[in-house]
Amino acid sequence: MRVPLSWLREYVDLPAGETGRDVQAKLVAAGLEVETVEQLGAGLKGPLVVGRVLAIEELEGFKKPIRYCQVDVGDANGTGEPQNIVCGARNFREGDKVVVVLPGAELPGGFAISARKTYGKTSEGMICSASELGMSDDHDGIIVLPPEYEPGTDAIELLQLVDEVLDIAVTPDRGYCLSMRGVARETATAYQLPLSDPALLDVPAPNGHGYPVKVADPVGCDRFTARTVTGLDPEAHSPIWLRRRLQKAGMRPVSLAVDVTNYVMLELGQPLHAYDRSRITGAIGVRRAQPGEKLTTLDGTQRVLDAEDLVITDESGPIGLAGVMGGANTEIADTAADPESGQVAGTTEVVVEAAHFAPVSVARTARRHKLSSEASKRFERGVDPEATSAAAQRTVDLLVLLAGGTAEVGVTEIIAPSAPHTITLPADHPDKVAGVAYGRETVVRRLQQIGCDVYGADDLTVTVPSWRPDLTDPNDLAEEVIRLEGYENLPSTLPRPPAGRGLTERQRLHRRVGRALAGAGYVEALNYPFLGDEVLDQFGLAADDPRRDLVRLVNPLSDTEPALRTTLLPGLLGALRRNVGRGEHDLALFETGLVFRATGDEPPAAILPVDRRPTDEQIAGLDAALPHQPRRAAVVLAGDREQAGWWGEGTPVSWADAIEAGRVVAREAGAELIVRQDQQDPWHPGRCAALLAVVDGEEILVGNAGELHPRVTKALGLPERTCAMEIELDRLEQAGAGRVEAPHVSTFPVATQDVALVVDGSVPAAEVETALREGAGELLESLRLFDVFTGDQLGAGRKSLAYALRFRAPDRTLTAEEIAASRDAAVSAAAARTGATLRGA
After folding, report:
1. How far apart are CA 34 and CA 624, in angstroms?
2. Strand ranges of the sheet holding 273-276, from the earlier edge strand across to the other edge
3. Is 269 in contact with 286 (CB distance < 8 Å)?
4. Ramachandran angles phi, psi of 246, nearest 5°
5. Cα–Cα distance measured from residue 318 to residue 324, given in angstroms and rounded to the nearest whole number
6. 720/710 Cα distance (integer angstroms)
7. d(Cα 316, Cα 306) in Å, to the nearest integer?
8. Among 183, 342, 330, which residue's Cα sits nearest to residue 267?
9. 480 is in an annotated binding site
10. Element containing residue 99 per DSSP (H, E)
11. Residue 660 marked as a ligand binder
12. Of 113, 274, 681, 684, which is most buried, counting CB atoms within 10 Å of its CB?
């Protein structure tokens, strides 16, 4: 909504020195979004005057028609002599009144005017167009003024070129501010000044002599006012002040009747429509459209109507979409002269419609036909139903005043019975909402300022004004009190959480895992939790794979991803692919989050009531309808783990790095991972590890890690040798020892012993490691596999595993005998469990 400050001053007597910026600050503090304050006429300097064209000489020999004009500007040039001006416009003739800028003036944009020679003549100024003066974007010719203005009259004041315009972004709940009346009310309240309400007019009572109207749908149209004006002068044009106000408000002047209805809409917020009476057949009706009916609207488009469209009709059928746009067959006729008789033809009788339509009906019709209009924008947000009579009267008064018409005595007004909306409000309710002691007097005063009638002492009975349909419950009224008292006056207080509460163990593990992976060099990538069947096909998952049991969304954001994810890998691999495509080749990404696994036993979710809090049983029913949602962590890697440089070649990532990422996660849960060879899509069958943990004495699968299958990397457009790991945090938490305790650091020296054990090639290294730990006993501090060797000297199908064992006691320095005994016990346990022998023994 564009609000000219000069127009606003007609309804609120603002202080003389108050600027648009000052008003903007006040309205913003009151809760309105004033986006900009446009300075019209900034940089404009006179003399800019009215001139009368005395003579026109057509200049020949140029690429375009050029005119050399003599223009009477009165005494504005100091001599009284005519000004000689070169002009290329063709839309004026001798005797016309035009706008002339004289040498020494400056137009908006820093365009200085001086006498200069052009087209072989000296031009002493310029005849101006609307675009050159910043009035509009009209480049179709210069401004031709009505004949009543004398040459030399100051055109800056006449055309109201200097002004300030506030551009307000009206939110959907503030539909009343799509009018000068509504903005003026907010301004008057903000400045604590009286309001001159433009809707306070003397309106004649309805009678039986008005234009006949039949409303068949009182729900869609609860109020309809019709007035008739006859004897309009078809040659009458909108006066300058009316056209300028429309232009400043962002609307284009069209014709007098249309301009008047647009003006009243901007002034009072009530959309109106003027019908050419000669084009209406019979009574005006309001009903729902018949399926298949057609209507050509004012924009020239023929529209096929829907059964839910509310339409205005006459005996010929639909003549307008109610609250959206009128029909072309009843529009105001353009003024035209008969070439034979010379008589001017045009609309001389109009029927003015001022109605109130249901907001939802108008909104649905506008969206159904993709037809947003100034009228529909207002009806959608709520229009004051009590303003229809005043708006019709204001329109009639302006048509009579400006077009010489006569208002017929007949007044048609159809009103569906309705009662004013009342709200019961405890007087201290705004205090409780805001945490500020306003007091009853302040609450009552503020509610009265927005137009409410307030009665009562401790419990207030508030009658909401007709122009505020957004006020429906006590919290709405509390918000009004708070915003008028000033949001900036609300104290900033931090909430105090009750003692003894904090993160759950699940949340702590989640955070620890994120920090550990970030510390290991991974970068977190958060992805949408949506999935499609295509990526599961690219993974090569079997038809009976549990990851294909998807939870599908009723209203997905994308048709290609209509379900919730059952694994974190698709999102992470998509992020990896995008980064590779942008030139990043060495990548290590991780994500922690939920996956959604349907069990098939979920009952259907019930539809909960919205008028009260659901019961505990209803909430439990909703929880039961949810799929299983385990929390997982996943990583993906590609490129080099260590960069190449002068020190040597880089180290590419491998399946071992993915497995190590699983160990990093398990350590944060206090769990010990068991790593075994596995075959699982989408991993490479020979480079895939199963990650297991012990829960209640039983080994369970908690995840997989390794290198992705070449078929998968090709299908997804990923780098070769891309590796990935996915692990379930909830199962790791069950396998863990609870909160991870900080280790005790011994001050005594460590003793290191290396052993190389030869085992069969099918024996997992993890099984050898477990046997060594069990045999070494409590003196073993750490164990690390640092070499794997195969060769002919070991024999076919044999491998050598070299381990570094670190021994330390917390209370003493170990003796050589104790170290040797622990080492020998570890080797013996490995030999008994896996058949290992010491290499070289």
Report:
1. 48
2. 273-276, 350-357, 221-230, 406-415
3. no
4. -65, -45
5. 13
6. 7
7. 18
8. 183
9. yes
10. strand 97-101
11. no
12. 274
Which residue is associated with the tokens 């040798």?
721
94 is in an annotated binding site: no
Q: Of 661, 725, 658, 666, which is closest to residue 695 (Cα–Cα)?
A: 666
Alpha-carbon span 552 to 550, nearest angstrom: 6
Is omega for the bond preceding 682 within 30 degrees of 0, making it cis? yes
**Spatial strand order in the sheet of 310-314:** 213-215, 284-288, 310-314, 317-321, 325-326
Q: What digits encode the pLDDT tens for the residues 17-38?
A: 899 999 999 999 998 999 999 9
The span from the CA of 320 to the CA of 202, in Å, is: 29
Q: Is the dihedral of CA 533, 534, 536, 537 positive or negative?
A: positive
Rounded to whole angstroms, the Cα distance separating 547 from 545 reads 5
- Under 8 Å between Cβ of 819 and 753: yes
- For 591-601, write each residue's pLDDT tens digit: 999 999 988 78
User: Residue 335: which pLDDT band, with cuts at 50, 70 and 90?
Assistant: low
What pLDDT is recorded for position 130?
A: 87
Residue 525 has a CB neighbour count (10 Å cut-off) of 19
pLDDT of residue 813: 93
Q: How far apart are CA 536 and CA 547, in angstroms?
A: 8
Round to whole Å and give the CA distance between 480 and 601: 49
Q: How far apart are CA 757 and CA 794, in angstroms?
A: 11
Phi, psi of 219, deg, nearest 5: -75, -45
- 43-66 burial by CB neighbour count: b if 16+ within 10 A, else e? ebebbbbbbbbeeeeeeeeeeeeb
Distance separating alpha carbons of residues 378 and 369, to the nearest angstrom: 17
Q: What is the pLDDT of residues 147-160, one digit of tens each?
A: 889 999 999 999 99
Cβ pair 709, 684 in contact under 8 A: yes
Positive or negative, the Cα torsion across 288, 294, 298, 299? Answer: positive
**Is 346 or 468 the better-scoring residue by pLDDT?**
468
Rounded to an integer, what distance in angstroms lies between the CA atom of residue 109 and that of residue 161?
14
Torsion of CA 540, 544, 549, 552, to 10 degrees: 70
Q: Structure tokens of 800?
A: 């050598």
C-alpha 671 chain-centroid distance: 45
Dihedral over Cα of 99, 105, 108, 109: its sign: positive
The three-state secondary structure class of 773 is helix
Using an 8 Å Cβ cutoff, are 314 and 284 in contact? yes
Gap between the Cα atoms of 252 and 262, Å rounded: 10
Q: Is the peptide bond before 47 cis (omega within 30 degrees of 0)?
A: yes
Whether residue 678 contacts residue 655, with contact meaning beta carbons closer than 8 Å, is answered with no
- Give SS3 for 273: strand
User: Any binding-site annotation on 476?
Assistant: yes
CA distance 33 to 242: 26
Q: Is the dihedral of CA 323, 324, 327, 333 positive or negative?
A: positive
Percentage of the residues of the chain whose pLDDT score is greater than 70: 98
Task: Decide if 479 contacts 490 (C-beta within 8 A).
Answer: no
Provide the 10 A C-beta neighbour count for residue 25. Answer: 14
Q: How far apart are CA 823 and CA 806, in angstroms?
A: 10
277: Cα separation from own chain's centroid? 44
User: Which residues are paired to 424 by β-bridges?
Assistant: 461
Extract the runs of DSSP E, i.e. beta strands, from 640-681.
640-642, 651-652, 674-677
In DSSP terms, 767 is beta-bridged to none
pLDDT of residue 792 exceeding 90, the answer is no
Non-local CB neighbours of 175 within 8 Å, separated by 6+ positions: 269, 378, 380, 381, 382, 383, 469, 470
pLDDT in tens, 114-161: 888 888 888 999 998 888 888 877 767 888 998 889 999 999 999 999
Please say if the pLDDT value at position 422 is more than 80.
Answer: yes
Structure token digits, residue 666? 């398990």
Say if residues 420 and 461 touch (Cβ distance below 8 Å).
Answer: no
